[in-house]
Amino acid sequence: MASNVNRVALIGTGFVGSSYAFALLNQGVTEELVLIDLNKEKSEGDAMDLNHGLAFAPSPTKIWYGGYEDCNDADIVVICAGANQKPGETRLDLVAKNVRIFKTIVTDVMDSGFDGIFIVATNPVDILTYAVWKYSGLPQSRVIGSGTILDTARFRYLLGEHFKVDTRNVHAYIIGEHGDTELPVWSHADIGGVPILETMTDEQEKLEEIFVNVRDAAYHIINRKGATYYGIAMGLVRLTKAILHNEHSILTVSCHLAGEYGEDDVYIGVPAIVNRNGIQKVVELRLNEHEKKQFAHSANVLKETMFPFFKG
């Protein structure tokens, strides 16, 4: 890793990538940001546009359009490239298309001499994070997917709206696949230390409604505007900051399980401690029996989906 100047290399400057770059600049998280994309003109335009906002940024940031060779000195490579999710298409429908794309991307990054941390945002994020780990040869701790970081944020937002409490004071997790089999950990959800299940004992239908709106949020947004990008961009910046600032923050990201939660050899969204070295530790929540079954089902769906691509 670079020892004196933090550099983030962003691969893919579509809706998510450009939103991430804009949020990164606004929060002054890194000293250098290089944009890499097959669409050279678009990415050059993004770099120019972002640089014109430097006078209003909280700290100086060097921003430019570059190539895979610039990944050599990068602390973090963030992958937002790949085929987009179309209306009516699930995240898992994207597997075949994006696994092929990712093999080329990761090979080019590693050929540069990159030895930092990968952050993966492209869907289906859990499977593609596994692909990056396999193709890169890096330790599991240094390959991280955005996982359920956005789903958890959506969960906290809707609970905050329901209880009329600041979202930042709601403590609740969505874990599992970033997709249709994800699950809410109601057994550990609380506001100000008060378990949510204690305050909503007679509101089972409302609990389910809140979760369904979290799970299906992407579909609703895609049907209205074609893609989701602001929320995930903010989540990616939060993850980037946790790494570069060595925060030891607990975030629900996609990380490799090796026995935790009773699962093995799968990338899936769970709370984990994140610092300068990547994933320091998976936080293993004590799930109730229903949640254990849901989580096992989610992990099995991911394994069955990715098996044809990584068997043997």
TrEMBL record:
Listed GO MF terms: L-lactate dehydrogenase (NAD+) activity
Q: Tell me where in this chain the Lactate/malate dehydrogenase N-terminal domain is found.
A: 7-145
Q: What is this protein called?
A: L-lactate dehydrogenase
Q: Report the sequence similarity comment from the record.
A: Belongs to the LDH/MDH superfamily. LDH family.
> Any idea which residues bear Phosphotyrosine here?
Y219
Q: What is its EC number?
A: 1.1.1.27
Q: Which residues of this UniProt protein bind substrate? A: Q85, R91, N123, P124, V125, D126, D151, T152, A153, R154, T228
List where in the cell it is found. Answer: Cytoplasm
What reaction(s) does this enzyme catalyze?
A: (S)-lactate + NAD(+) = pyruvate + NADH + H(+)
Broad class of enzyme this protein falls into: oxidoreductase
User: Is Protease included in the keywords of this UniProt record?
Assistant: no
Subunit (UniProt) = Homotetramer.
Report the protein's function: Catalyzes the conversion of lactate to pyruvate.
Membrane-traversing stretches: none
Q: Give residue ranges for domain Lactate/malate dehydrogenase C-terminal.
A: 148-306
Activity regulation as described: Allosterically activated by fructose 1,6-bisphosphate (FBP).
The record's active-site residues are H178
Provide the binding site for beta-D-fructose 1,6-bisphosphate.
Answer: R156, H171
Tell me the route in metabolism or biology where this protein functions.
Answer: Fermentation; pyruvate fermentation to lactate; (S)-lactate from pyruvate: step 1/1
Keywords for this entry? Answer: Allosteric enzyme, Cytoplasm, NAD, Oxidoreductase, Phosphoprotein
Which residues are NAD(+)-binding? Answer: V16, D37, K42, Y68, G82, A83, T104, A121, T122, N123, S146
Alphabetized Gene3D superfamilies for the sequence: Lactate dehydrogenase/glycoside hydrolase, family 4, C-terminal, NAD(P)-binding Rossmann-like Domain
Query: Pfam families from the entry?
Result: Ldh_1_C (PF02866), Ldh_1_N (PF00056)
